[in-house]
Amino acid sequence: MATSNSSSTTVNLKLMIDKKPLFAEAGKDFVDFLFTLLSLPVGTVIRLLSKDANNESNAKKFYMYVSSCKTYPYTHSVSDDPKAICPQCHCPISNPASFVAPAAAATTLETSGQGRGYVRGVAMYMIMDDLEVKPTSTISSITLFNNFNVKDVGTFEERVVPLDMDKV
After folding, report:
1. What's the structural domain count of the chain?
2. Is 118 within the bounds of a domain?
3. Which superkingdom, per the lineage (predicted)?
């Protein structure tokens, strides 16, 4: 699935197409990369992307809007006190927040001794257009084909797209 050479790593992404892409099939390397991207805070991604942008992009404007807690309902500060004041803008911190225990976040396979990453390396995974990821199996493929009302599986086009992970 992944080939390594001295300069870069290439991962192949197999697309199943029936007039439009139905799903992608990928291995552990791509799925771990995808989950890593999805685990980043959106503000961090926008900030990193907007550093390279020379113009006033919508992403940059959105980041500036979100980062100023006076105009956006989500603040960067958290407090137990319902009457607490934000130290940056001196606005009341009134939005409820949920606490997630660190033990719940430690679900990677690294903790179970089976390698690093989010998923097992021995399986292939189906990635839907809504970023739902599940192990590839005959049952999940048949269910997906039924959901898309696919009558003839022979009409599929299978396209392999090489992705250079250093450029992604």
Report:
1. 1
2. no
3. Eukaryota
The whole-angstrom separation of Cα 46 and Cα 81 is: 31
Tell me which H or E stretch contains 159.
strand 157-164
CA–CA–CA angle 15, 8, 12 (5° rounding)? 15
State in Å, rounded, how far the first CA of the chain is from the last one: 16
Rounded to two decimals, the pTM is: 0.55
Each residue's pLDDT tens digit, 2-36 = 444 445 588 889 999 888 888 999 998 889 888 88
In order of 56, 106, 118, 129, 162, the CA distances from 32 in angstroms are 32, 15, 6, 17, 16
Find the domain containing 150 and state its range. Answer: 1-27+123-168
Helices (H), 90-161: 102-105, 138-147
- Structural contact between residues 15 and 161, judged by C-beta atoms closer than 8 angstroms: yes
Name the maximum alpha-carbon separation found in the chain. Answer: 64
